[in-house]
Design a protein that fits this description.
With 555 residues, the chain is of the alpha/beta class. It is built from 21 helices and twelve strands.
């Protein structure tokens, strides 16, 4: 029996009593024939507030036309986005992770209210991509995600992280005023998401590995014929999903999330993938935990020599074939579940069957026999500083153990100031607290402090730990997502200047080297800080859960 392609829209438009609904839809372009077609919402994250999304209106129109040509009826609607790169290091960055929930809620709200039968969502900047998947998982209607694409390199292979690190270099006397201005003017040449294996490209790759994007969607430049073709293919693909009732619940499984984790590790992806994959899985009722990253990470190597810790940009990976040859290598090695269904209607193994290998001589993706790191760079740490866990991004270039003296800051701004003015010195463990999901609120990314450390030449001699998180562009000896966070009385709240802290990536521990008795004395003297009360930040602070379970507001 054929699937009911109009399961939701027929409730809205069929029957004499639905004449008012049809009347309003005629005003937005519906013809008589359109009412008998399945309705597909095109969720566009277009915005002129960031280059990551400035071109997505054009992609949305291409995707909409492809739906109409394939026999559906498209309706474009918008949702918000905010720019991490612009708000980074300011109070505005508190809204970044919050926007993930707002975007997911808004897509769910529009699609459910309007009775869309399917969804095509197009995302570009970091938070709107996991948000799209969260909404798709909640709605469980045939759905495809399209990545807006990566930015082309700036002059001298520069990108946004080049600018942040140039600020640190300027503070350290290594970069002149003129050089800093030149980097600023040339790093961002046009549309697209940040160019390394930062959070945007990490999440695009993870979503493709999950099976929610068409092949190669994650590895295309924003301004390219390939990205246009990706949108053109979406119409026929979504109609096929509608015809066969292939919904996210049939694609998103524990095994598909294991595939996503595997690909993220092999690519050397962002720590934000941990937070977002946990949230995405929970939104669809799939069990996933921090310990799954450790279990999978013990057997999956880092193979990609990509920025921020490596040499190459996403555009260079695209030029040699993107992530598909890497996925075929992982599949052939038994590291991916090939029987997972994808939005093509085929299994992952079927999709990858004819994938050509990378060209001889390329240096971006290492062979399994010669990895950059034999196991994962995403290290889940536990200890008396992080009873619920913390997430470190350690490639091995930083070393695998760090012991130093705590230098405590109550905000990102105060820490950045101390790094730039020379207060922070080699051997310090910079502690930035009250930046967690509730305490920030919003769990700001610490790209400015980490980039300043690298720019000042302290990237391998200073560690940084926080209950906030890190941009995919951060590198160095950094530990984030410390849970429980300081604002709810987590041990991070009890650290004092001069305490010794040890981070051990081999033992996977993070330890505050003081006695339990002293810790108990400090805990008894601790008082909870006042949390944000009004507006969206207040609402978020009241609802949000721990980073260790994805920082969700609806579960």
């Amino acid at each position: 029996m054929a699937a009911d392609k109009r399961k939701y829209s027929r409730v809205v438009v069929d029957g004499l009593d639905r004449a008012p609904s049809r009347s309003m839809l005629r005003a937005v372009g519906f013809s008589d024939d359109d009412f008998s077609r399945p309705q597909v919402g095109i969720a566009s994250t277009w915005s002129m507030v960031t280059p990551c999304n400035m071109h997505i209106d054009g992609l949305a129109r291409v995707a909409a036309e492809s739906v109409d040509t394939a026999g559906g009826k498209s309706l474009i609607f918008n949702t918000i986005t905010v720019s991490d790169g612009i708000s980074m290091g300011t109070p505005g960055m508190r809204y970044s992770l919050v926007s993930r929930e707002v975007i997911a809620d808004s897509i769910e709200t529009v699609a459910a209210a309007e009775g869309f039968d399917g969804i095509i969502a197009i995302g570009g900047c970091d938070k709107n991509m996991p948000a799209c998947v969260m909404a798709m998982a909640r709605l469980d209607r045939p759905a495809i995600f399209i990545y807006g694409g990566t930015i082309r390199p700036g002059a001298g292979q520069r990108d946004i992280v080049s600018v942040f690190e140039a600020v640190g270099g300027h503070a350290g006397g290594k970069v002149s005023d003129a050089q800093l201005t030149e980097v600023e003017r040339t790093a961002i040449p046009g549309p697209g998401s940040c160019g390394g294996m930062y959070t945007a490209n990490t999440m695009a790759s993870a979503i493709e590995a999950l099976g929610l994007s068409l092949p190669n969607s994650s590895a295309q430049e924003a301004v390219s014929s390939n990205k246009t073709d990706d949108c053109q293919r979406a119409g026929a693909a979504i109609c096929h999903l509608l015809e066969n009732d292939i919904r996210p619940s049939k694609i998103l499984s524990r095994e598909s999330y294991e595939n996503a984790i595997t690909v993220v590790i092999a690519l050397g992806g962002s720590t934000n993938a941990v937070l977002h994959l946990l949230a995405m899985a929970a939104s669809g009722g799939v069990e996933l935990s921090l310990d799954d990253f450790t279990r999978i990470g013990r057997r999956v190597p880092v193979l990609a020599d990509l920025k921020p810790s490596g040499r190459f940009l996403m555009s260079e990976l695209i030029a040699i074939g993107g992530i598909r040859p890497l996925m075929k290598t992982l599949l052939d090695a038994g590291l991916l579940h090939g029987d997972c269904l994808t939005v093509t209607g085929n299994t992952l193994a079927e999709d990858l069957r004819d994938t050509a290998p990378y060209p001889d001589g390329q240096e971006i993706i290492r062979p399994l026999s010669n990895p950059i790191k034999k196991d994962s760079h995403l290290i889940i740490l536990y200890g008396n500083l992080a009873p619920e866990g913390a997430v470190a991004k350690i490639t091995g270039k930083e070393g695998v153990q760090f012991t130093g003296s705590a230098r405590v800051f109550e905000s990102e701004e105060s820490a950045l100031s101390a790094i730039l003015d020379g207060t922070v010195v080699a051997g310090d463990v910079v502690v930035i607290r009250h930046e967690g999901p509730k305490g920030g609120p919003g769990m700001r990314e610490m790209l400015s402090p980490t980039s300043a450390l690298v720019g000042k030449g302290l990237g391998d001699s200073v560690a940084l730990i926080t209950d906030g998180r890190f941009s995919g562009g951060s590198h160095g000896f950094v530990v984030g997502h410390v849970a429980p966070e300081a604002a709810v009385g987590g041990p991070l709240a009890l650290v004092e200047n001069g305490d010794q802290i040890t981070i051990d990536a081999v033992a996977r521990t993070i330890t505050l080297d003081i006695s339990e008795q002293l810790l108990a004395v400090r805990r008894a003297a601790w008082t909870a800080p006042a949390l944000e009360r009004r507006g969206v930040l207040g609402k978020y602070a009241r609802l949000v859960g721990s980073a260790s379970t994805g920082a969700l507001t609806d579960i």
